[in-house]
Amino acid sequence: METFLLLAHPVTGGLATLAALWVFVDTLNAGESSVARIKNISLICAILMWLTYFLGGYFYVVYYYADKAFIKAGPWAFGHNFFMEAKEHVFLMLLILATYLPIAAYSYVPSNKSVRKIVLWVAGLIVPTSLSMEGSGAVIALAAKVALLLKVKGV
Amino acid sequence: METTEIGKYTKSFGLSFAITSVISALLVILKETNEATVLAWMKTATPHHWITHGIINIILFVALGWVLSMPNSGQGLKISANALIGNIVASTLISGLLIAGFFI
Q: What ipTM was estimated for this complex?
């Protein structure tokens, strides 16, 4: 279960990022035929982000304490002290931003430049923020790996 | 024909995100600097302080989004797209910097 959660949450997070990127690109080149797609993919982005929240959150609350102890005792303590602490709290903001995306996209029509601009900015903010979550996750995983390797080697 | 009208929920929940995001970042600083009181309460309210934090954010986002859709006889707030985007972008940057800056 632990390994599944560890693998599943960056996958759903990555898919949510791709969905936001899809919305951004589709909105840039929007026509009448893309309206339904933009609304649907916006909703999918939000659903995937919520799934990421539950999968990652469950891992964080139930299993992470063991990794945390290793990371904090290892040479890459910043993996928890900065990257995990920032990640877990920035993600809460990202979750709300992703929830807002379908709300903004719901009233989108190609002739409405104001809503188009809002959807572009929101989707455009989700992509780099999500990528920073993925990057932080990689640093945290590496911090745990470095700590465990040193323990195995008896350093 | 080109239109510029923004839906009332697009405006209200956009502003709600901006406000909630900054409050959430401030709550991070508040709970981490008041471990014996704020953090302790958040730990007892749910199995984990992070769960409490998430629940507070979601309740705030929904409540503010709903309340901010009420003004002007239910027509919602009067705010331009550029101002709304400015609030959303500024809030995202400020919140991110507050959180990252606090943990550096």
A: 0.92
